Amino acid sequence: MTVRDPERKRISWLQPWFVAVDVWQTDRMTGLTAELVVDGRIPQTPVLAPNGLLVCYVLAPTSRIGDHLDTELWLADTNGVTALRRASTDIATESRPRWSLDSDALFFLSDRADRGIPQVHRLTLADGTVTALTNWCAGIIDHLPLADANLVALLAEDEPTEQDARRARDRDDAIVVGEGEPRARLRMLDLRTGRVTTPDVFGGRHVVELRQRPDGGPLAVLTQASADKDYGPRTGQLHLFDPVTGTAEDLGTVEAEARSLTWWAGEDGWHLGYLALTPPLLQAGTAVFDLAIGSGVLRNRTTGLSMCPTELRQTNAAPLVLFADGLNTALARLDPTGPTILSRHPGRLDDLSTTPAGEKIAVLTGTRYQPANVHIGPPTGPLRKLTDTRPELDGITLGTQQPLAYRAADGVALDGLLVLPVGKTASEGPFPMVTIVHGGPYDRYADRCQLFWFPSAQWLAAAGYAVFLPNPRGGQGHGHQFATSVAGRVGREEWTDILSGIDLLIAEGVADSDRLGIAGSSHGGFMAAWAVGQTDRFRAALVNAGVIDWGMLAATGENGQFEAALGGSTGWSGIGPHPHDAVSPISFASHIHTPVLILHGAEDTNVPLGQAVYFHRALRHFGVEHEFVIYPREGHSIRERNHQLDVMRRTRTWFDRWLRP
């Protein structure tokens, strides 16, 4: 029944009561509550011991109460013989577990002594003792136990000096941009003496990542000119550092956004690989790059593939690579002739860890109806579930999730997901339908459980909505050309890709054309704002941390140059008109008639709050019904428990108001 039904018009004064009863009945049937979602705990960063007998992982709450996120380290027997156990009992933020090469000790970061200031700690498995190894005033950013059992490489900023303390007391703290910026430096911890030294290498550059050669040789070191997120990722360089002599060698520049340093031995000597954006565009698909140390030849090892590499992991032989492959994931070995697929897995695989020989892996993965847990097995599969961190979700009824394959208006093959209302089949449609666009845009929807605190398919499905999760151009999973096709053209083909999926679901009787909503966060928020400026088909929209003006974002966002690549220009690209104006939702504000819910974190540096303020003022100017909610203390992602609860409840209330009269 639509709002045009005369019977519904005669009882419109009862609308709030009907909506409340409908939602309450659905929740009662499914057992799903907002508290159940935000009060969960999720496993992160599993790390296999070199002997393969234990895996350590971080257990983190979905939401934060108070000023600190209290996380825990857990140990699991990979053979499943003994029960899971906590590595320590402190209330602290614990992270970055790293094993000693003999598997007898676990190194990790913890702020147990001074909250917010992480230090390196060591758990000795033989007696279960935990020892603090550093007391660095600035805190430790990362650490790497070396082949020499007496040494641990550290990444840490400089400790404050007496002059710094005096200036802070006197409030003589004017900031000169480019001077005195915090930079992570390489430091060496000698476990015999407890002394931390700082080698005079890399010319004061910001150190990003370390990886020791598998034979215990030099460290590969990735540096940037600055820690500035707009500038730094475009200035990467590789170096070798010898921990014995303390000397360094420069290997040259790397591609933008380089990460995941990985060594392997070839017939021509040692190779050093990494993941980075495919040149020349800053908005492009990720590739695996291979640098032959002896010759200095750099190759793209994944060119031409219809998949996108997401993780690269070192072994004592050929490295392992995870690929986003459509809605699913492939695990491959990087052989001299190219990637060799070892196994394929539904949905996502994340945080891959491997034993040195590569015969056993640990990874985070789940199913359509189960959140991700630690799984273990051989690279060729199958993988065995090792943890169950969300038992409270057992027995909760979720909406049926199914993959979609369809074609864009110009014939490009596309995919996505459809989640049906809980307890319903497609033949019972049409249903009110909300399209949720993913962020990035270099991200994707994988065929995994779609239940999160932010606008998620299963949360809306529990309230009776069908939910469409499209993977338009610009995202992962379909190769470099698919990803880079939106550079300078955001809102063009990716918008018609989304419309093609919506039209298909309307034609198949799943979606009610009179009850359509659209939502998204970050780049998905941009697409929701863009959509309502292009059409009146949607009855309601949700814009969470969305991009409203690309020129403004390039000027003020922490990733300005990357945003400029998406928008196509910057404000300093001449007098204009500028290409980014033609793809900015603010340019079409006068066309908007759809009610819009705007959500934004007050301290968002990725997409600053000014974007939402700009949109709010435009909608107010043109008299468009909207609601603008600012979350204090929050950045690009909402972390506080009460704020997450508000997002979930407000989202559903908003769509209930406009799509279910």
CATH superfamily of the largest domain: Alpha/Beta hydrolase fold, catalytic domain
N-end to C-end Cα span? 9 Å
* Count of beta strands: 36
Q: Please give the order of strands in the largest beta sheet.
A: 29-30-32-31-33-34-35-36
Major sheet, described briefly?
A: 8 strands, mixed
Q: Helical amount among residues, as a percent range?
A: 10-25%
CATH topology of the largest domain: Rossmann fold
**Continuous helix count:** 13
**From the alpha-carbon coordinates, what is the Rg to the nearest angstrom?**
26 Å
List the domain count as a whole number: 2
Folded structure, characterized:
The protein is 18% helix and 33% strand. The chain has 661 residues and is of the alpha+beta class. It folds into 2 domains: 6-30 and 397-659, 3-Layer(aba) Sandwich (Rossmann fold), CATH 3.40.50.1820; 41-130 and 305-390, no CATH class. The strands form 8 sheets. The chain has an 8-stranded mixed sheet with strand order 29-30-32-31-33-34-35-36, sandwiched between helices. Mean pLDDT is 93; it is low at 1-29.
Quick description:
This protein is α+β, with helices and mostly antiparallel strands. The longest helix is centred in the last third of the chain and has 19 residues, at 641-659. The model is unreliable at 1-29 (pLDDT under 50).
What's the helix and strand layout?
Blueprint: H1 6-10, H2 15-30, H3 34-38, E1 41-48, E2 54-61, E3 72-77, E4 85-86, E5 94-99, E6 105-110, E7 119-124, E8 129-132, E9 142-145, E10 151-156, H4 162-170, E11 185-190, E12 195-197, E13 206-212, E14 219-224, E15 237-241, E16 248-253, E17 259-266, E18 269-277, E19 286-292, E20 298-300, E21 308-313, E22 320-325, E23 328-335, E24 338-345, E25 350-354, E26 361-365, E27 373-377, E28 384-385, E29 401-407, E30 413-419, E31 431-437, H5 457-461, E32 466-471, H6 480-484, H7 493-507, E33 511-521, H8 523-534, E34 540-544, H9 550-556, H10 560-567, H11 579-582, E35 596-601, H12 610-621, E36 626-631, H13 641-659
Parallel strand pairs: 31-32, 31-33, 33-34, 34-35, 35-36
Antiparallel strand pairs: 1-2, 2-3, 3-4, 5-6, 6-7, 7-8, 9-10, 10-11, 11-12, 13-14, 14-15, 15-16, 17-18, 18-19, 19-20, 21-22, 22-23, 23-24, 25-26, 26-27, 27-28, 29-30, 30-32
Helix pairs in contact: 9-10
GO biological process, one term: proteolysis
Protein name: Peptidase S9 prolyl oligopeptidase catalytic domain-containing protein
Pfam families: Peptidase_S9
